[in-house]
Amino acid sequence: MLDYADLDGCVAPYKHGDECTYHCFDGFCPDPDGGTGDMATCDDGVWVWNNPPPIECKMDCGPPPMLDYADLDGCVAPFKHGDECTYHCFDGFCPDPDGGTGDMVTCDDGIWVWNNPPPIECKMDCGPPPMLDYADLDGCVAPFKHGDECTYHCFAGFCPDPDGGTGDMVTCDDGVWVWNNPPPIECKMDCGPPPMLANTNRGGCVGPFKHGDKCTYTCIAGFCPDPDGGTGDMVTCDDGNWVWNNFPMVCKQECGAPPVLANTIRGGCLAPFKHGEVCTYTCIAGFCPDPDGGAGDMVICNNGIWFWNNPPPMECKKDCDPPPTPDCASILFCNPPGPPYKHGANCLYDCDAGSTEVGGNDMLTCNDGFWIGVPLDCKKDCVAPPMPDCATVAGCIAPYTHGEVCNYQCDFWCYEFLGDNLLTCIDGVWIGTPLVCLLYCPAPPLPLDTIRSLCVAPYTHGEMCDYDCKPGYSKTGGDDMLTCNNGVWDGDELECKEDCEPPPEPEDRDLINCDPTGPPAIYPHGTGCYYECAEGYTYDSGNDTLTCNNGEWEESDEPLYCKPNCEEPTAPANTVLDSCTPPAPPYYHGAECTFKCAVGYTKVSGGDNMMTCRGGTWLLVGEQLLCAPSEYLAIAARKVTVSNLKCAQS
Fold first, then answer.
1. DSSP 8-class letter at 167
2. Residue 218 pLDDT class (50, 70, 90 cuts)
3. Domains annotated on the chain, with CATH
4. Element (H or E) spanning 438, and its range?
5. Dmax of the chain from CA atoms?
6. Residue 379 to residue 389: CA distance in whole angstroms
7. Is 514 in contact with 503 (CB distance < 8 Å)?
8. Model-level pTM greater than 0.70?
9. CA nearest 624: which of 612, 614, 610?
10. Would the pLDDT of 31 be above 50?
11. Residue range 397-407: mean pLDDT, rounded
12. Helix, strand and coil percent figures for the chain, each rounded to 5
């Protein structure tokens, strides 16, 4: 099947050789740029096109689009796929050069397509351009097409008004002339020379003087405009006439430097000082006008001379710093209140609670920066006086005001250690060193085996007693000195233990050293002496240390035992030494040696062949080894009794 096409000339069943012809629907036609195959033939089960590829049926188009002010050419209805229509503007119209360029449409499967979208726009031609007074026209000729531009130029002796329009060109826009910058220019007449003013310089303009030119006037050096006169300082050329901006000014002479007032700041005027210039004076920071002096605070320059507004000029008096605040005093009020505290201000004072007046004035007055009067002198009261231990106080009662005196005495069981008997209240502080009364100490202790020295009764605070051990005794703890501290002896009591005699030196051991060694022949309590077995002896068990304990040498729970070594072992009869542990002397306690029958001897009885060193002696272990000459073995074979052998051996 083909889209938008009818089938003709064949019916089912379709036999070999049948031909089917295709026709586009009404309103459709074959695409001239497509295939031309419009018939298919059944060939042995396969449909074969006459001119492949097959036709494509494209839709016809409706009427082409219409353009304003344009004719259509090159196409008639019905409008088939591929038809082209061309557009032409009417007479008196032309395509807009700034618009589209599409001037042809093509029917494409039922749709009109532009060659160069967007389409052209036909714009109307214009009539003659507008005319301007005193201006020439340039750059355009009839007929005036859409987009044509005409330029205007003022006549000689005329120029565009700078305050008027700036439009100097019109453009034809679809039958209408449009200004580039509306409104259009206005050509105005030039002016002659500008007017003259006395004592001035003219600037800002040169001939020829065009409409809108401005000439400004400034006073010559040493002169300035009268502020009460005219203010016109500029003329403007207006279509051939000079026009003042205001009534013309009058130039007046300037003044020299304004007068100087002490302690003031001048403001409102700057050099050069013009006629009418006003200088105002204000007191500098920290000063104010004297209310009893002049009121003049401004001068005015009048044609070279300075005049005061209210003569005589004012006098500035210095403000005062904040009024002093004496210790223990407060300001009740100031009149007038501050800050700032102006010349003539008065401040009233009173002592604070807990303080007492002792001198000075209760009012101060500000006079040109200084407070007149002696500041009020208030002193603080004191808190309750100190109450030392072992002391009594008399001569003072609350409240304790400045100058109050307290008298102190130690109780009879105490004594004065340091400090003063009198304390005086001075501005809230008790002056003097508080009295210190301390207790006496009791008699000092005398520990066992010690000697006391350097202290005698009565024993006051700080008293020191020196202690030493008796001869033959040494220190084991405590302090060598006790100090009396407010009735109590500070320090630990000295402890002494008896020294020992030189340590013993038994035969079986040697003394190595003692710790601490101490002076020669001195062995204090706690000394440890260390031993080792003497030559020819061997360690067996126990501790190797003796300790001095309060004059006696004490051994540990297990004393040191040293055993004597053995001599070279002697072999039993008919035997020789086999081996020993250790293999060579010395043979220490516990050493072992084994024996065997000598060459030519044979074991007869006994099985043990070992001896052990015990306390310097070789002891047989078990039954003794008996060896007989080998020749007796033959006799033994002949039943020689063992007893005979023993006899023969003996």
1. B
2. very high
3. 5-59 (2.10.70), 70-124 (2.10.70), 135-189 (2.10.70), 200-253 (2.10.70), 264-318 (2.10.70), 329-380 (2.10.70), 391-439 (2.10.70), 450-498 (2.10.70), 509-564 (2.10.70.10), 575-649 (2.10.70.10)
4. strand 436-439
5. 190
6. 29
7. yes
8. no
9. 610
10. yes
11. 92
12. 0, 45, 50
User: How far is 177 from 150, CA to CA, in rounded Å?
Assistant: 9
Position 518 scores a pLDDT of 61
Helix ranges (H only) for 402-464 are none
Per-residue tokens: 132: 């301007």
Kindly give, in sequence order, each residue whose CB lies less than 8 Å from that of residue 369, ignoring residues fewer than 6 positions away. Answer: 286, 317, 318, 319, 320, 321, 343
Structure tokens at 471: 């001869």
What is the rounded distance in angstroms from the CA atom of residue 328 to the CA atom of residue 356?
A: 8
Check if the beta carbon of residue 648 is closer than 8 Å to that of residue 595.
no
Q: Which amino acid is at 511?
A: L
SS3 call for 52: coil
Residue 625 in contact with residue 608, Cβ under 8 Å? yes
Under DSSP, is residue 648 helix (H, G, I), strand (E, B) or coil?
helix
The pLDDT of 294-303, averaged and rounded, is 93
- pLDDT, tens digit, 9 for 90 and up, residues 475-490: 999 999 999 998 899 9
Q: Is the pLDDT of residue 645 over 60?
A: no
The single residue listed with the structure tokens 């591929």 is 82
Of residues 259 and 638, more confidently modeled:
259
Of 316 and 647, more confident: 316
What average pLDDT does this structure show over 252-258? Answer: 93
> What residue type is assigned to position 532 of the chain?
E
The residues, any chain, with a CB within 8 Å of residue 204's CB and separated by 6 or more, are: 214, 215, 216, 234
- The two tokens of residue 497 are 């233990």
